Amino acid sequence: MTLDDFRATLADASLPAVAPLLKALWREAKGDWDGAHQIAQDIETADAAWVHAYLHRREGDIDNARYWYGRAGRPEATDTLESEWAKIVTHLLD
User: Fold this and answer.
1) Domain residue limits at 25
2) Total of domains in the chain
3) Furthest-apart CA atoms within the chain: distance in Å
4) SS3 content of the chain, % helix, strand, coil (to 5)
5) Verdict on whether the full-model pTM lies above 0.90
6) Which one, out of 23, 52, 62, 63, has a CA that is 20 to 30 A from the CA of 77?
């Protein structure tokens, strides 16, 4: 699946058959921040920490996002939220 393929699934009503962290990003893109957060907070990997950081950045809780970027071993994002979302999706699809 490519980034464009994944984006196309956002037109669907049901979750695509993808890994949990991609499901989290799909839910967030569909407006279900709480559902996305539930998935991300229950997984203890660097990738999950990155998704978690993104979610808190999206929420506007920058201090919490900084903590999760640190847990992810990634610098704090400074690009647009849309760009970061695409970077994370692309990373997870690889």
Assistant:
1) 18-93
2) 1
3) 34
4) 70, 0, 30
5) yes
6) 23
Question: Tokens representing 88?
Answer: 């994370």
Confirm if 16 and 9 have CB atoms less than 8 A apart: yes
CA angle 45, 3, 26 (to 5 degrees): 60
Q: Could you say which DSSP state residue 76 is in?
A: P
- Per the listing, tokens 């999760």 go with 68
Please write the tens of the pLDDT for every residue from 34-83.
999 999 999 999 999 999 999 999 999 999 999 999 999 999 999 999 99
Task: Decide: 18 and 94 in contact? Cβ < 8 Å.
Answer: no
User: Residue 51: which CATH number?
Assistant: 1.25.40
Cβ pair 29, 85 in contact under 8 A: yes
User: Is 55 among the domain residues?
Assistant: yes
